[in-house]
# Entry
Amino acid sequence: MRLTKTMRLTAMAACAALAISACSTSSGDKKSSDQASGGSGKTGGSISVQLGEPQNGLVPQNTAESEGTQVLHGLFAGLVEYDNKTNEPKLRMAESIETTDSTVWTIKLKDGYTFHNGEKVTAQNYVDAWNYGANQDNAQQALPFFDKILGSDELAPGKDKKPTAKELKGLKVVDDKTFTVTLKAPFSQFKTMLGYNAFYPLPKAFFTDPKAFDDAPIGNGPFQMDGKWQHNQQIKVKRYDNFPAADGKAKLDSVTFKIYDKLETAYNDLRADNIQITNKLPISAMATVAQEFGDRYIYKPEASVGYLGFPIATNPAFAKADLRKAISMAIDRDAITKTIFSGTRKPADDFVSPIVPGYRQGACGDACKYDPAKAKELFTQAGGLPGNKLEIGYNADGGHKEWIEAVGNQLKNNLGIDVTFKPFEKFGKILDALGKKEYTGAFRMAWSMDYPSIEDYLRPIFSKIAIDNGSNYGGYVNEDFEALLAKADSAKTDAEGLKLYQQADDILLKDLPYIPVYTYMSSAAYTKTVKNVVVDAQNRIDLANVELA
Amino acid sequence: MSEPTNTLDGKAASAEGALAKGAKGGKDAKERVASLWTDAWYDLRRNPLFIIGGLLVLFMVALAVAPQLFTDKDPNSAGFCELASSLKRPSADHWFGFDVQGCDIYTRTVWGARNSIIVGILTTSLVVLVGGTLGLLAGWLTGFWDSLLSRVTEIFFAIPLLLGGMLIMSTWQKGNAWTVSAVMAVLGWPQIYRLMRSAVISNKHNDYVVAARALGAGTRRIVTRHILPNAVAPVIVVSTINLGVYIGAEAALSYLGIGIQSPAISWGLMISDAQSRFLNAPHVLLFPAAVLSITVLAFIMLGDAVRDALDPKLR
# Structure
């Protein structure tokens, strides 16, 4: 998933440069599902919402960044969606998703869903869309997500090779409402993946003219396009009246996504009620927003975790786990999140984000607790660093300088080492330099999930396979960890899988291939004109539920 | 030093004027040999612009040479920056307050002078050395070499200092005082080259040069004794003003993140780090910015005063 991850993390970094809130998540606490389906709330009205210019055309399979995802969230409805509180997957367009062995999955669709052009949503629409996304000739961003499905290698054999098939062997349409998915190997978290926008269906109209879809997609969600995407200006959507009422029909008549390139401008427009909701706030607003917006200011943990990483495979200086633990204990996470980030991030105490099922508070234990005396002792015992020097690399475009320097100062003060910094122009440049083994210092790293599963925080960054085909830039390999992941994948139940993933997480917490430093918080605000504003697990505003106050 | 200067009518007249003024002052008027340089020094001593600028420059140089005299803290020592003091306001113990990392801004500002002064002086020296030598050669040799050098110069002259500096520094990615100076010198020498060349050409045909040649003086003697001393004045003026400009340019490059790199201290870097929190903590930005402005101003004032003193047309 390297490509997607890189793009996503770069986008995230860019976001963080603009605003404290990055591009992901937060779990809601004001969900009013009764009102949503009961129709007791007011319907009608129009609002405007802040948006950044999406990176690509609005094709679900080609969208991996926050802005496009926000728009698609209203235009499409997935097989599952995530609970705003617990982030557990729950069925949406699917009537049932069943498996006995975690390898063959049978998906049944609900009745009553149509695309915005009137076409009925059938199993074939899903299969067609996934085949399209999995084919490397189409160069879709979400291609790595189809990797687990049987036959994906034939559609994506790699660079310079031609796909030898047009359809995934693992996808079979049983009837209009049913299809089966066969995976290459058991994967207990497959159902959780299905809420990601890569798995949205596509109507027949898409395949006759994919280009037109970029600016005016035809979805199956509660909102439909109202005109075309006006680049760098706005995207207008209106309620789709044939959306099944039981599944959260939109209440507003229309929503205009106003495209801003400066968060400060958007925030000023929010204060003037020119836009009604924003899910990204500028740094300059952080000091006053809580006071100004009161309970209309949403502030919640979100999916990204910030790490300090070590190229264990290429630099033997970092090989000892105790040394990494000493560095971890010399970092005062509390002070950094409070002063540098003004409380907009929280100290990390697990490799997994707090919003994901399976996160355990304080799992990191002593290793993540600030204890300069013990850190120094452990550091000396582990033999210290060669030349008593440490270099930390970071990308200069993402607002990381301050916290990296703060970490540097703390390591200098507490371990008595010289710390130097190496800014890279972009996040991708550090990753390239690490991949080519040109850079062997410590580096800053962040990870955001694609689907809310503990597995998505373990395999893509720490597994052996992710060294070549993922984001394991430290080159960490642990056979016990691999074995536990495999065991967890083939677990019969979610709960059993979760336990095994947690055991794998425990191994990471002992080895500390990366040091978890902080988790991100997302911040959003809305004006008095609207109510029922919920920001979900991926920092998306749940627009279908929003209504005028 | 350069006796032929007095043969020029204008210079002689001004020298007389100076003598007359000196006589009014009543101090060693009859002993003084009036030359361009003594005149200039005489003028400078009485120019408040020069005195203020000179004192400020001296002070900055003192900061650069011996920061320990002005602060007892060492910004490179462990424990210098404590997050607990982050963004604290100026107080009696810490005159300039603390920055976001909890480092004492006063100490950092004092220690930051060194890089600025190094860059200023080093760049100016390199520029004068390279531009001056090449300008002298081109002006003296004329013909083919002059054409060749002048075309090369025009190529360099076409690259703006800051833009070119950004381009080179961002590709090179090794920002410290020495590399920044080298890059700015590479881009800055054509100006001095042009000045030197035109000064040499205009002096070359003067009577005293012809006379020296007629008396059998060699090329080296003519160049070092007659041409150089008379051509160097405009170079000194422009260099002094430019020294301030180079310090400002270094700050700009560091501000953009491609000049001097942390943990080294540079005023430009301090300003850059402080800007995002300007509304909450203006003191973090204002102190280094003020010191930077004063330093650049000091050099420009000094240059202005020197120009007034050395340019006969302004008298």
Remarks:
- Chain B touches chain A at residues 78-79, 81-84, 86-87, 100-103, 170, 257, 261-263, 273, 276, 279-280 (CB under 8 Å).
- Confidence is low (pLDDT under 50) at residues 1-27 of chain B.
